[in-house]
Amino acid sequence: MTGTIERPTVTIPPEVKSVGNIFKAIGRAISGNQGPTASDADCSGLAARVLR
């Protein structure tokens, strides 16, 4: 799910086989609960590597 509140864009992956899974994916996108995050990442170090 991307876009804005006024014009949301919902993309359904081809591997989704049920309406329930679609609603679960939309719920995760709205709540922001989409799995593990890199909470302990070294942002400064990563940015320096990318900007070399």
Q: Could you characterize the architecture of this molecule?
A:
With 52 residues, this protein is mostly helical. It has a domain of 34 residues. 40% of the residues lie in helices and 8% in strands. The chain has two helices and two strands; from the N terminus they run ββαα. It has a two-stranded antiparallel sheet. A hairpin with a 4-residue loop joins strand 1 and strand 2. The longest helix is centred in the middle third of the chain and has 13 residues. The chain is elongated and about 45 Å long. 0% of the residues are buried. The model has no long low-confidence stretch (mean pLDDT 80).
Question: Secondary-structure element order, as H and E?
Answer: EEHH
As a whole number of angstroms, the C-alpha radius of gyration is: 16 Å
Shape: elongated
Low-confidence stretches: none
Helix fraction?
40-55%
Strand pairing plus helix content: what structural class?
mainly alpha
State the main characteristics.
single chain, 52 residues, mainly alpha, two-stranded antiparallel ribbon, 2 helices, 2 strands
TL;DR of this structure?
The protein contains two helices and two strands. The protein has 52 residues and is mainly alpha-helical. The chain is elongated.
